[in-house]
Each structure stands twice: as C-alpha cells, then as structure tokens.
Amino acid sequence: MNEVVLKKNSLLSIQQSLETACPPVLETLICQEKFAKKELDHTLHCQYLFWKEKTKMLSFKNGDRNNVFFHVVVKKNYSGIHRLRTDNGGIEDPKLIEDHILDIYRNLYVDSNPNAQITGNMEDFIGTYIPAMVSFEENIMLIKCPGYLEIKNVVFNLNGNSALGLDGFSGVFYHSCWEIIGTHVCKAFQQFLNKTGFFLG
Description:
single chain, mainly alpha, 3 domains, two-stranded antiparallel ribbon, 9 helices, about 5% strand, flat
C-alpha cells in the first residue's frame, strides 16, 4: 500500500514539473513520466495479485464473506478522473474537467456537421446531433416499472449458490423465503425505481 502511494506521489511530482518545464528539460521529464507510469502500473498489478491471492486464502477460511472487502479495496483507487492534462496545463477542479470533456465532444460533433449550432443545453445538443435509436414506444417499455411477476422471475433466475449480495443473503434465501418476503422485495425495488425511498409499510 505504501509503495503505491510513493509511486503515485512520484508521478504527480513529475507531472507538476512538466506543467512549468522549459523546452530543454521537457524531453527528460517526459521520459521520467513514462518510466514512473510503468512503475506505478507494475506496483498496482503486484498489489492486485497480492489481494487476489489473499482472497483465495481467505475464501478457504471465510467463504464468500471477504468478497465485499476485496472489491471495496481494489475498486476505490479507480473512482474517476481527478486530474487532467490539457494544452493549457493541468486541471483538477471536477467542474472544469467536466466542461473540458463536454467541449471536446461538442466540438467533435459540431466540426463534423457544418449545419450544427452550439447550444448551452446539453440535452438539446444530444437530441439534435445524436440520432435516436429507440422509438417512443420502446422507451416507454424500457422505463416502465416492472411488476411482481417480472421481479419474481429475475429473483428465481439468480444462482442460489452464488456469492452473498451486499445485504448478506444468497439467492437460495430469496428462493426459499419468497412467500414471506416477496411482496416486500417487490415493493422496495419499485420504490427505488420510482425514487420514493425504501420505506416499507
């Protein structure tokens, strides 16, 4: 873990130097950055292999109980874009990163379409320059809240012997207790889709 932090800090230090570097030193810093990236990738890969092996060993002792921990530890390092290098230097502000990425795609589609007009509203832009592939009727069917039978079919298609979910229950629990919990599961799922919360009456 500490080695990953050291490699990340080393790479960040080189990238910060790149932003203010003069042409004579620029080539050297670019080579150092490539080397630092390779070292960081190698260290992350070693860390991944370590956790993979640790998970195998723990699975003999704890079964599937360690899966949530493994995914939280491994995935938390890849939770988004935190820094972006542009022609004008580096960007760290999430709003500026979002605007920069939107500008790239806006310019990409506007340049490829001579009749295009830049609009401030992204939904108007998407509706104008990206063709609709789903009809109105298909869209209604896709966003429709599923009914009791549809949810039950999905639950009963779960592998009963698969790893536990975030709630700590396996598929076999839902299969065997459906008569008791089925209505509540469906209600919770429908409330979630309708964004009304998880309040079961």
